Amino acid sequence: MPEYAVPTPKRRRGRPKAGESDAQERIVAAAIDEFGELGYDGATMRGIAARAGVDSALVHHYFGTKADLFAQTVGAPMRPDLDLPALLDGPQDGLGDRIVRYILTAWENPEIRKRGVVLLRSSIGNRLTTPLLAGFLQRELIGRIAAGIETPDATFRASLVASQIAGLLIARYVLQLPALAAASVDDIVEQVGPTVQRYLVGEP
Amino acid sequence: MPEYAVPTPKRRRGRPKAGESDAQERIVAAAIDEFGELGYDGATMRGIAARAGVDSALVHHYFGTKADLFAQTVGAPMRPDLDLPALLDGPQDGLGDRIVRYILTAWENPEIRKRGVVLLRSSIGNRLTTPLLAGFLQRELIGRIAAGIETPDATFRASLVASQIAGLLIARYVLQLPALAAASVDDIVEQVGPTVQRYLVGEP
Question: How close A189 gets to chain B, by Cα (Å)?
Answer without folding.
Answer: 11
